[in-house]
Specification:
Blueprint lengths: L1 H16 L10 H4 L8 E4 L1 H4 L5 H5 L2 H5 L5 E4 L3 E3 L11 E7 L6 H13 L3 E6 L3 E3 L4 H4 L23 E3 L5 H18 L3 E4 L7 H11 L8 E4 L5 H5 L3 E3 L1 H11 L7 H13 L3 E4 L4 H6 L3 H5 L2 H13 L3 E5 L26 H14 L2 H4 L1 E5 L4 E8 L2 E8 L5 E4 L8 E4 L4 E4 L3 E4 L4 E6 L1
Parallel strand pairs: 1-2, 1-12, 2-5, 5-8, 8-9, 9-10, 10-11, 11-12
Antiparallel strand pairs: 3-4, 6-7, 13-14, 14-15, 15-20, 16-19, 17-18, 17-20
Helix pairs in contact: 8-9, 11-12, 15-16
Length: about 450
Amino acid sequence: MKRYFLFGVLAVLLAACRPEPQPQPWNSLTDVVDPEDLLLYEVNPRAHSAAGTIAGITADLDRIKSLNVNTIWLMPVFKMGQVKSVGSPYCVADYTNVDPEFGSLDDLKALVDSAHERKMAVIMDWVANHTAWDHPWISQHPEWYTKNAAGQITHPPGTNWQDVADLDFSKPELHAAMIESMKFWILEVGVDGFRFDAADYVPFAFWKSAMDSLKGITDRKLLFLTEGERPDHYNAGMPLIYGWNWNYNLQQVFGTAQAPVTNLFTANTTESNASPAIRLRFATNHDQSAWEATPVTLFGGVEASFAAQAAAVLMGGVPLIYTGQEVGEAGTTSFFGKDPVNWSANPGLSERYGALYALRVNHEALRYGTLKPYSHPNVLAFERILDGDRVLVVINTRANAVTYNLPTALQGLEGQELLRSEPVVLGNSLALAAHEVRVVAVR
């Protein structure tokens, strides 16, 4: 017995001396997720902290990580133009420098490094279509810009973006300069890809040459999100594009129009038929929260906004959370000036958003599964099915209680309520409170 005691003591001592396992360094090729596995968080630097700086984002990375995020999309932090400026960060005066309002290049490197330590990728917002009026290219390469009949450089045609000058992508030299600027952020700062602003305004030839060149960086795995819906973006090599049509229908269903829920399934099918690209799914983004309203205001309350986000997270595609959405910001959120989020609003809501993302992490059927819709005018109901694994999602899109009669094929089945962590037996119907979300792993 004494011998065994000594062996036990020795084992404890050896365990105590054994060094703690060290976090593995960032490996782009293995730590950057595949596009269909993206769980995206869009950061508005001006709203994210009271200071509105890059350092303010870095200080919040642990909380962002707690949402089960694996990738951060950073809105533009480039040096901003002053001529004709309206304060937009999409008015770029220098593609390879950080605006002092947001901090320094070293601050950005620190943000990227800190995100990587937490196994989160960082993609930057890239503004290819236009520059500020005081960008050096205006004087150095005026031939790179669109001209009117009088030979004057113009703002982007068909827009009211008077603060920016439209680039003419018929010039191969412009292609090369733009791509070299992109490579700077990948090779010198370590970013993991880009979100391409206003991509539908930029011709296919540029996107194809950019994708071919960037994908030639073979020791890096890069992510590309395209703000556009043209089918040829996928052909250029951009696998993830916006789902504007689906988002429009989400607003119609959850908003005051109270449109039939089946419109969401129709929009999903329409987008799938248009292109094999993966679609971004969102209840809001920086444009909508600034110019229309945040989901809390747009959809009529915190619970309505959460239900709409649940639809975006669980129905398919790549889901997005935008700065402040997870604490139920009301009204509007500007990105043309400092507009700090009240992070103490609606305690517990942020954890619920994290729980939605956790469902995507823990259930492959919610990432890759086939969508099986169930028709109802007021209740969004569907299964996601993969290799026999079934997850049932039922969301009341209305501000009043609804009784949802379950399809015969589901009645009597057992399962696990995933958001409540409790077993359930499905009866003939579900009594749903206003904007209630039910998610069941069906056995």
